[in-house]
UniProtKB/TrEMBL annotation:
It comes from marine sediment metagenome. InterPro entries: DNA_pol3_alpha_NTPase_dom, DNA_pol3_alpha_thumb_dom, DNA_pol3_finger, DnaE2/DnaE/PolC, PHP_dom, Pol/His_phosphatase_N, Pol/histidinol_Pase-like, Uracil-DNA_glycosylase-like. The keyword Cytoplasm does not apply. Residues 1000-1162 form the Uracil-DNA glycosylase-like domain. This is Uncharacterized protein.
Length: 1167
């Protein structure tokens, strides 16, 4: 009996080919009884493997081929890593393996997660079987034989692996372990080191290696295994392969094959158990603590029908208590309390939790579920076994504080993130395979754009089969197309879930719930969300929402400009709603704070504005499709906004449901169904647009439980196999007959119709939470338009600024470019019905320059208190003062043409909206500006006149090409160096960035500095190596203030052209992938280099190293070295990234690189 005990699937990322389902299906065909999974350095695929094995009727064996070194504390590039295969026989072994892998990832990671000999010596091996691994066995490391002897003395179960691969290293390994087997009496075991399922898939696995190493398919030196046969071989195939290899008798071969069965028998008793969630205890009696909080809230809230709320509360509380969820709610409540105490705003509700009265009482949501008719059973039901899922939106700028609070309260290793799996899908696999085959990017782009879920072309195969362009592509690039189809759906890499935060009472390093690892500077579980839940890990989704930042800043502006009053007779914060000027201040009353949750949902002006299509700045409703639908629907009450948000989704729109709703809302007749159905859909014109409605219909028409109704809803909504619905259909038919609502024939017809209508249902609680935010934003715009639109212009990068400004004029406000004494460094302000842009809206103005311009720099002094407690004064003869003067900062009457404004500012005020003032002939100010360009430090000219007209170029005669002279600004002024950068979505980073790609900044000399990718501060401020961020501060402090023999270096930012290899902030993945680096280089950096023609490049980090050389690591070893790079025709000074100093606390590599850069500059300048 032979069993495969050494096998790699897709979770040996870009090394092993084949999903768990593909392997187990093939194993079942071959009548294997057991199958092991031993991926490199991880067990991330273990639970998926177990499920697939169980489904195929195969007994799973869990294990790992770990990377091992003599000592993990030693890290050097040339180290030799060995392999050791570990198989699990019981829960103790699983826990020990995961505990060891946690150490490997958190402490031993150096290129790969490594364990060491001491860990093997100290660990409890009673639940593990050790196999010696492939030709890269630990036996071949220094001290390997000694470790083997210690394992022998310890009584460990060790087997020597032999493999039938006809390559010299493996033959030598086989001979070695045969000799050792005689000496130590450890038996031989036959393994195949499987890396793909079928023999024919070896090319697919080779392509994975090519993608991993960025190699070209026709490169004779590209890395591959150099032999085949790593498929799921049968016992007969294994026997014959060993015979062909030679060196073993038939009896020895058979004993080694049979040994696999004995090992499998020892392992077959273990499966990874599904575990209960173990949360921190929040009270001695959490049920009572929860009840006390809710009872207090019930008494405090002025409900119109207290009995109804008390009854609803009792139903919810009883279910939560019976299911043991009290601590969960108390944890969330504690988080809400922290946010409230620190002035951090939360969204009114997100997801199905909006249907919970208890969540409303605790302040988790602001949605009254009875008022809004929201279902609790969509959130928690009697028979539902999984834990509730509460998603929380906080202000985006404070999300990190929330996560830090959680880690501080519960412990660093009692919390973690969740892993996500990124797969080779659609466009991504075409790009990867096409690059390896040298397919022109234009040809790949032409067919990639045809992959379209709506058109049912959501895979490479359906695109190639279903389009003429795809057929032509296949005919020309057949090999690439075939491999792309073969690889589609395989795992490419792991990522970090953007919002998930796990909280546990257990120290997650103990191994019982899998292992921990680092993912982009964050400790995460090795499992994805589904598998983490299986292991008993409870997660909260902690998300950042910029709309909340808008609302908070709007509130600040309103409070500053108008204040709020409480009138003793009204009982409301908002009074005199019918007055012409909106909310007037009463003559009597007291000042109070402003609360969004006090806003009533019955303001007809809000509905009228949305119906008129005036949706700019409105949350989730400002898009073109939603605006048009709002105009078609005609919004007359709050529930219409809820429906609007649900109906604009692709499903209802594409299916015709939205069009049907609009027609019926305007009076179109339709056939009536059963009275119960009509009652449930009374507010939605007989259409099931909410998931909760589907559940209500199933429950009320057929008497089915809410839990079963929820299961049906899930199957329909997620478009799963209709076979899953079959048992419920008969239950529905029988229930209808018992309830005497439908005959069997009518029930089946109704069921079929229900399936179709229910495909596109939206979560009503979620839609209601969004609708509240939409209402609040529109209410603010109508009642406090200047303040709201100023807040939108400050924070909401997705909104079109011209559209917002136009809206401001419609409300009787005007907008102004930055003005001295009135503008803030970074935020829009409002004075006397004028919205003033911040200084950061001047092209090229980063945060540092903006703050200097607003009075926080060394050239400023305070003259009088203003909105931000100072009115700045600028030395107008300084360089920055001249630039500000050119931008009209000191001239309150200064006007600009559209062309002028487009050259100076990041937005343009339509001149037709500007009060009429005679500013002279167009371009009258050009001579002055031309003089400023010639007199100023070129950095300010470059930053402020990025798109300068050609006539200015003619006025500048600066020489180029030599480091000893100033770089020709005229060369850069041929046009933007990165045109259309803001619209770039060529790689996945475009979906991660917060405020869009970060472009370059010009400098005085043709010297380039390349970072890796923007960090959060750079993303926020649009400025590479932003001075307020740790990396930027270290860099510029070093260049300005480091001491040399003749004084400080004094190398300001203005000397250098500063850019990043990748332009988008990788907020989820943290480190750009090689694909993303290549994409950004080809799309942007190559163009920058061609235009700017640098002669010296200071290149930071491994991302720069890969971009310029293709080397995947080693920047520390190169740091301080200078190389000529023929590709860019420039001298590159390599340097460790300044951010690495913060991470490691070791500055030696950074210092070495910077010292070299300084010396090179002195040489270049002839000093």
């Amino acid at each position: 009996m032979f069993i495969h005990l050494h096998l790699h699937n897709e979770f040996s990322a870009l090394d092993g080919y084949g999903t768990a389902e593909q392997y187990t299906a093939r194993a079942a065909e071959m009548n294997f009884s057991h199958l092991a999974l031993t991926n490199h350095g991880n067990v991330a695929g273990a639970i998926k493997w177990q499920r697939a094995c169980q489904k195929a009727g195969i007994i799973p064996i869990h294990g790992c081929e770990a990377y091992i070194v003599p000592d993990i504390s030693r890290k050097f590039k040339a180290e030799r890593r060995g392999h050791i295969t570990l198989l699990v026989t019981n829960m103790d072994g699983w826990t020990e393996l995961c505990r060891m892998l946690t150490v490997a990832h958190l402490e031993g990671h150096y290129y790969k997660p490594r364990i060491d000999f001491e860990m093997i010596r100290e660990m409890d091996l009673s639940g593990l079987i050790i196999l010696t691994g492939c030709a890269a066995s630990f036996l071949n490391l220094p001290g390997g034989f000694k470790l083997l002897a210690e394992l022998h003395e310890k009584g460990a179960r060790v087997y020597y692996e032999i493999m039938p691969h006809n390559i010299e290293p493996q033959q030598a390994q086989n001979q070695l372990v045969c000799e050792l087997s005689v000496q130590t009496e450890f038996p031989l075991v036959a393994t195949n080191d499987c890396h793909y399922v079928l023999r024919s898939e070896h090319k697919a696995q080779e392509m994975l290696l090519a993608i991993q190493t960025k190699a070209k398919w026709d490169d004779p030196k590209r890395w591959s295994f150099g032999f085949t046969g790593l498929h799921l071989r049968s016992e007969q195939e294994m026997f014959k392969a060993f015979q062909r290899l030679g060196g073993f008798t038939d009896a020895e071969i058979q004993r080694a094959l049979d040994a696999t069965g004995m090992i499998a028998a020892e392992c077959e008793g273990f499966e990874i158990p599904q575990q209960d969630i173990n949360l921190p205890s929040m009270a001695d009696d959490p049920d009572k603590a929860l009840d006390d909080l809710c009872q207090t809230a019930l008494q405090a809230k002025p409900f119109s029908d207290p009995r109804a709320y008390e009854d609803r509360y009792r139903v919810e509380y009883t279910l939560i208590k019976n299911k043991g969820f009290a601590d969960y709610f108390l944890i969330v409540y504690d988080l809400i309390q922290y946010a409230n105490e620190h002035g951090i705003m939360m969204s009114p509700g997100r997801g199905s939790v909006g249907g919970s009265l208890i969540a409303y009482l605790l302040g988790i949501t602001e949605l009254d579920p009875i008022y809004h008719d929201l279902s609790f059973s969509r959130f928690i039901s009697e028979d539902r076994v999984d834990w509730p899922d509460i998603d929380l939106d906080f202000q985006k700028e404070h999300r990190a504080r929330i996560v830090e609070y959680i880690e501080g309260k519960y412990g660093q290793f009692n919390t973690c993130g969740i892993t996500t799996d990124s797969r080779l899908k659609g466009r991504a696999v075409l790009n990867d395979v096409g690059r390896a085959f040298r397919v022109p990017p234009a040809d790949i782009a032409q067919v990639s754009k045809l992959i379209d879920t709506k058109a049912k072309r959501d895979t490479v195969k359906t695109m190639l089969d279903g389009t003429d362009e795809g057929s032509r592509f296949y005919a020309v690039y057949k090999d690439a197309a075939r491999l792309a189809m073969k690889l589609e759906g395989q795992l490419r890499q792991h990522g970090l879930h953007p919002g998930a935060v796990v909280i546990s009472a257990d120290d997650l390093r103990d191994g019982s719930r899998g292992n921990l690892k680092m993912q982009k500077d964050r400790v995460v579980s090795c499992f994805d969300m589904e598998d983490a839940e299986y292991c008993g890990l409870m997660k909260l989704d902690i998300l950042g929402l910029v709309t909340l930042d808008v609302l908070v800043y709007c509130k600040e502006l309103i409070k500053e400009s108008r204040s709020f009053w409480f009138h003793p007779e009204s009982g409301e914060h908002f009074v005199w709603k019918d007055s012409p000027g909106g909310y007037m201040l009463p003559k009597e009353g007291k000042r109070v704070d402003f609360d969004y949750d006090k806003i009533p949902f019955d303001d007809p002006k809000v509905f009228a504005e949305i119906s008129a299509g005036n949706t700019a700045g409105g949350f989730q409703i400002s898009g073109r499709a939603t605006t048009q639908l709002a105009q078609d629907m005609i919004i007359t009450e709050f529930k219409d906004i809820v429906a609007l948000i649900a109906l604009v989704r692709p499903g209802p729109t594409d299916s015709g449901m939205t069009e049907m709703y609009v027609a019926r809302s305007k009076g179109a007749t339709y056939g009536q169904q059963h009275p119960i159905y009509e009652q449930v859909t009374a507010d939605t014109h007989g259409i099931l647009i909410y998931q909760e409605q589907i559940m209500q219909v199933i429950s009320k028409v057929a008497g089915m439980s809410e839990s079963d109704a929820d299961k049906v809803r899930k199957i329909i909504a997620k478009k799963r196999d209709l076979a899953e619905l079959a048992p419920y259909e008969q239950q529905f038919v029988d229930g209808c007959q018992q309830m005497e609502t439908f005959s069997a024939e009518q029930a089946r017809a109704f069921w079929a119709n229900l399936q179709e209508l229910g495909k596109y249902g939206f979560n009503k609680a979620h839609s209601t939470g969004y609708a509240v935010l939409a209402y609040w934003t529109c209410w603010c715009k109508i009642n406090y338009p200047g303040e709201f639109l100023a807040a939108c212009l400050t924070y909401d990068e997705k909104e079109d600024k011209q559209r917002l400004i136009k809206d401001a004029y419609r409300y009787g406000f005007t907008a102004s470019y930055p003005k001295d004494g009135l503008s803030d460094p970074l935020r829009w302000t409002i004075h006397d019905r004028v919205m003033y842009a911040p200084f950061s809206e001047i092209i090229g103005m980063g945060e540092t320059e903006a703050k200097r311009a607003a009075g926080q720099g060394p050239e400023r002094k305070t003259r009088m208190k203003g909105f931000f407690n100072m009115k700045p004064v600028v030395n107008q003869q300084s360089d920055i003062g001249k630039v500000l003067k050119a931008a009209g900062v000191f001239d309150p009457e200064r006007m600009f043409t559209t062309e002028e404004a487009g050259q100076l500012f990041k937005f343009v005020i339509d001149p037709d909206l500007t009060p009429t003032q005679d500013s002279g002939e167009p371009g009258a100010d050009y001579p002055e500006l031309r003089k400023i360009l010639l007199d100023l430090d070129p950095v300010y000219a470059a930053e402020l006149w990025f798109d300068i007209p050609g006539e200015f170029v003619n006025a500048i005669s600066l020489p180029s090409g030599l480091i000893t002279e100033e770089h020709a600004i005229a060369q850069a002024f041929k046009g933007p160096l990165c045109p259309d950068l803001k619209d770039c979505y060529d790689c996945p980073l475009g979906d991660q960035t917060g405020k869009g790609p970060v472009g370059p900044t010009m400098g005085k000399y043709n010297i380039m500095i390349t970072g890796e990718a923007p960090g959060p501060e750079e993303d926020e401020h649009g400025w590479g190596f932003y001075e307020g961020a740790p990396a930027g501060k270290l860099l510029w402090d070093t260049l300005l203030n480091r001491q040399a023999r003749k004084g400080k270096w004094n190398l300001p930012r203005e000397f250098f052209y500063v850019t990043n290899i990748c332009k988008c902030y990788p907020s989820k993945t943290r480190t750009p992938s090689h694909t993303e680096i290549e994409t950004c280089y080809d799309r942007w950096l190559q163009h920058e280099i061609e235009q700017m023609q640098p002669r010296i490049i200071l290149a930071f980090g491994n991302t720069s190293l890969y971009a310029f050389t293709g080397e995947k690591g080693g920047i520390n070893n190169l740091s301080g070295k200078v190389q000529w790079n023929e590709r860019v025709r420039a001298w590159i000074v390599w340097c460790a990234h300044p951010a690495s100093v913060k991470r490691s606390g070791d500055s030696q590599y950074f210092d070495r690189g910077m010292e070299t850069f300084y010396k090179i500059l002195l040489k270049a300048w002839g000093r």
